[in-house]
Design a protein that fits this description.
Elements (H helix, E strand, L loop, with lengths): L5 H26 L13 H8 L4 H9 L4 E6 L14 H11 L3 E7 L5 H4 L8 H16 L6 E5 L5 H10 L6 E3 L11 H12 L5 H11 L11 H11 L15 H16 L10 H4 L2 H14 L5 H11 L6 H10 L14 H7 L1 H11 L20 E6 L2 E6 L23 E6 L2 E6 L9 E9 L2 H10 L6 E5 L4 H4 L7 H10 L4 E5 L12 E6 L16 E5 L4 E6 L26 H5 L18
Parallel strand pairs: 1-2, 1-3, 3-4, 9-10, 10-11, 11-12
Antiparallel strand pairs: 5-6, 7-8, 8-12, 9-13, 13-14
Helix pairs in contact: 1-15, 2-3, 4-11, 6-7, 7-14, 8-9, 8-20, 10-13
C-alpha cells in the first residue's frame, strides 16, 4: 500500500489534536451503550407493544419474542422530486430483505426533502439551509424511540444527506448505511442547457423555449446528472465508507439498483452489536473518513456547499475542521474529473468511464486517502475499488477498471486535469471566502475592478436588464449569510454574469451568500465570513471601491480607497426576510446560526455536541 502523503497525514493529525477532547466525549457515548442486547428490550412491556402493533405478524413475533435485530428506516421519500420519488418502493424491498436476513425493518420516520432547483431565486430558498437542520432534528426524532439496532438512511440531495448524517451521528452506537436511489438517464447536454439559460437572461429567447430545454434536462425519476451538491454527496459518502461499494451512481429503477438496496439491508442486519461484526457509525466516521471526503471533493471539483456541510457533519461526530484544512488538502490533490460544470460530461459518463472504483483506487495508490478506515462494507477503503455487477440474479463485486474509458471525463492521479484541487480558500480585507476554480479559465481567475454593491439577487438582475453592469466590475451581494436570510443560493446570477464575461468584461462576484453547487465559469468569492449581518467587512464596501480577487494567490483585497478600514459597516434592512413562505418560523435558526466556516448551523451549543 502506498505511503500516505505528508500533507494529508499532517492535516489529519492536526484535526485529531484539535478535536481530541470533543471527540473523546463523543466516543464515550458509544462506550456507555451495550449494543449486545436488542435495543427494544430496554423498554417496558407497554412500550415494546407499541413498537410492533402495526407490523406484519412474523415481524411482530420477532420483535416481541425473538432476538432478531431491528432496523430503522429514515426516508426522504416524496413523489414531487425526481431524486426521491424512487424511494416509494424501498421500504417494502427492505422489509422483505430484512426477513431473509433474520431481521425486522420498519420505517422509523420521514424527513423533508426540498429541492433548491425549485426554490432558487424565490423566497422559499431562504429555508433551504435550515432544512438541513430540520432534517437532522427529524432524523433524531425518528431514532429517538430507541428500539433500533441499526439504521438505513434514504436520501440523496443537497441538504438531505448532510441532515441525515448529522442526526444519525448523534446516535453513534447505531450502525448506519446510506442507500442512494441513483441518477436519472442523461438528457439535454448540460452545456446546451447552460447556453439556453444565458440566452434567456439576455432576452434572446422566451420562457417557452427555456422551459422546453429545462424539461429535456430534468426529465425522469432519479438524481439530476450534473455534478452539483447532490452528486458530491454521493462521492463523499462513498469515500467515508457509508455506502456499499459502487452504490453511488448505479442508475435508478434497474435490477442492479434494487439488488444493491437488498444487499444494503442485509448488511445493516449483519453489522449490529448483536453479531460479531459491530460497525457503529460513530466509529466509521472518524478523522480519517472526514479527510477522505475532503480529498474526494477536491479531486472531483465538487460542490462548494460542502465547505459548509462537512464542518457541520464533522462536528456532529465530535470532529472540528476548518477551511484551512480544505485549502491544504486542495494544494496536494490533483483534479481528476471533468463533470459539468467543470466539463461537458455528466455523472453517468463519469460512472461509465470507471466511476468511483477507479477514482478510489487512484487516490489510494497516490497516498492521498486513508485506506485503513472502518467502513460498513468491511475490508477498509480498498473494498471501494470494486464495482457491483449482477449476473443470473446474483450480486457480486469485481475489480473496477484500471484504465479510464474516457480520459476527457476521468483521469488517473498521475496525469490529471490539474495538479491541484478545484476548490480554494480566499482571505484578505473582506474576510475569508471560498472559490471554485475548476470551471474558471486561468485567464479569468484574477479580477481587479470597481465594486457595484447590492443587497439582493433581484437588485442585480434589475441592474443587468438596465445595462448598468456592462463594465468591468466586482458585483458585491451582501446580506445573504446564514444570520441575514438563511444563506440562499444565488444561482440566478450565473447566467447573467456569464453573459457579461462573454461580452468581454472582466467580472467577478463577492458575496456572503452561497452559489449553486454547480457554480460555473465566472470567478466567485462566496461564503464570505464574517457576514454582513454580523458587521463583517463586506458591509463596509461602497460602489466604486476597487476590489482585487486573485484565485491563484487566494487574495480578497480592497485596493482603494485608503479610508476603507475606518468606515462603519452599513446597516442592513433585513425586515423583508422575516415573514412569508414560513420564514417567520425560522427566526430562531437565523438568530443562532454559526458562521459559514463553522457549518452555518443553528446548533450552537458546541460543548454539548
Amino acid at each position: 500500500m502506498s505511503t500516505l502523503n505528508t500533507t494529508v497525514e499532517a492535516v489529519t493529525a492536526r484535526i485529531r489534536e484539535r478535536s481530541a477532547k470533543r471527540r473523546q466525549r463523543y466516543l464515550d457515548l458509544i462506550d456507555a451503550y451495550d449494543a449486545t442486547i436488542p435495543a427494544r428490550t430496554r423498554l417496558a412491556e407497554a412500550n415494546q407493544a407499541h413498537t410492533s402493533a402495526g407490523c406484519a405478524v412474523q415481524d411482530k413475533l420477532q420483535l416481541l419474542g425473538g432476538k432478531w435485530p431491528s432496523i430503522g428506516i429514515v426516508t426522504a421519500y416524496n413523489d414531487m422530486l425526481s431524486a426521491h420519488a424512487p424511494y416509494e418502493r424501498y421500504p417494502e424491498i427492505m422489509r422483505k430483505a430484512a426477513r431473509e436476513a433474520g431481521a425486522v425493518a420498519q420505517v422509523a420516520g420521514g424527513v423533508p426533502a426540498m429541492c433548491d432547483g425549485v426554490t432558487q431565486g424565490f423566497a422559499g430558498m431562504e429555508l433551504s439551509l435550515w432544512s438541513r437542520d430540520v432534517i437532522a432534528l427529524s432524523t433524531a426524532v425518528s431514532l429517538s424511540h430507541a428500539t433500533f439496532d441499526a439504521a438505513l438512511l434514504l436520501g440523496i440531495c443537497d441538504k438531505i444527506v448532510p441532515g441525515l448524517l448529522i442526526g444519525a451521528l448523534r446516535f453513534p452506537w447505531l450502525p448506519a448505511i446510506l442507500v442512494p436511489g441513483g441518477p436519472m438517464p442523461s438528457g439535454l447536454p448540460n452545456k446546451e442547457k447552460a447556453a439556453r439559460r444565458q440566452l434567456f437572461a439576455e432576452g434572446k429567447i422566451g420562457r417557452e423555449e427555456l422551459l422546453k430545454a429545462e424539461a429535456e434536462s430534468y426529465h425522469a425519476p432519479g438524481t439530476c446528472t450534473f455534478y452539483g451538491t447532490a452528486n458530491s454527496n454521493q462521492v463523499m459518502v462513498e469515500m467515508m465508507g457509508l455506502h456499499l461499494p459502487g452504490a453511488a451512481f448505479v442508475p435508478t429503477n434497474t435490477p442492479l439498483r434494487e439488488a444493491i438496496t437488498v444487499a444494503a439491508t442485509k448488511r445493516a442486519a449483519s453489522i449490529t452489536g448483536l453479531g460479531d461484526d459491530y460497525r457503529p457509525i460513530g466509529r466509521v466516521v472518524d478523522e480519517r473518513a472526514i479527510v477522505n471526503a475532503m480529498v474526494a471533493l477536491m479531486a472531483t471539483g465538487g460542490s462548494t456547499n460542502h465547505f459548509i456541510h462537512l464542518p457541520a457533519i464533522a462536528l456532529a461526530a465530535g470532529i472540528e475542521i476548518n477551511w484551512d484544512d480544505f485549502a491544504e488538502l486542495s494544494h496536494v490533490t490533483p483534479l481528476m474529473t471533468r463533470i459539468y460544470p467543470n466539463g461537458s460530461a455528466d455523472v453517468n459518463h463519469f460512472h461509465a468511464a470507471g466511476g468511483m472504483g477507479f477514482l478510489t483506487r487512484e487516490l489510494i495508490e497516490a497516498g492521498l486517502v486513508h485506506a485503513d478506515t472502518l467502513t460498513v462494507a468491511g475490508g477498509g477503503l480498498v473494498a471501494y475499488t470494486h464495482e457491483p455487477v449482477l449476473a443470473v440474479d446474483a450480486l457480486s463485486w469485481r475489480e473496477s477498471p484500471r484504465t479510464s474509458a474516457d480520459e476527457s471525463v476521468l483521469r488517473g492521479a498521475r496525469a490529471p486535469f490539474s495538479s491541484d484541487g478545484g476548490l480554494r480558500l480566499m482571505s484578505g480585507d473582506l474576510g475569508r471566502a471560498v472559490v471554485k476554480v475548476s470551471a474558471v479559465e486561468q485567464s479569468k481567475r484574477y479580477v481587479e475592478a470597481p465594486a457595484l454593491v447590492f443587497d439582493s439577487q433581484a437588485e442585480v438582475q434589475s441592474a443587468f436588464k438596465r445595462g448598468d453592469l456592462d463594465r468591468d466590475c466586482v458585483v458585491v451581494v451582501r446580506g445573504q449569510g446564514p444570520r441575514a436570510n438563511g444563506m440562499p443560493e444565488l444561482h440566478k446570477l450565473m447566467p447573467l454574469m456569464g453573459a457579461l464575461q462573454d461580452r468581454g468584461f472582466k467580472v467577478a462576484l463577492a458575496t456572503d451568500g452561497r452559489m449553486s453547487g454547480a457554480s460555473g465559469k465566472v470567478l466567485a468569492a462566496i461564503h464570505i465570513t464574517p457576514e454582513a449581518a454580523e458587521g463583517g467587512p463586506i458591509a463596509k464596501v461602497r460602489n466604486g471601491d476597487v476590489l482585487r480577487i486573485d484565485a491563484n494567490k487566494g487574495v480578497l483585497e480592497v485596493v482603494s480607497p485608503g479610508d476603507w478600514r475606518a468606515r462603519a459597516p452599513a446597516q442592513l434592512d433585513l425586515a423583508g426576510n422575516a415573514r412569508g413562505v414560513g420564514r417567520e418560523l425560522f427566526s430562531l435558526f437565523r438568530t443562532h446560526a454559526a458562521s459559514a466556516e463553522r457549518g452555518g448551523s443553528a446548533f450552537q451549543d458546541y460543548d454539548l455536541l
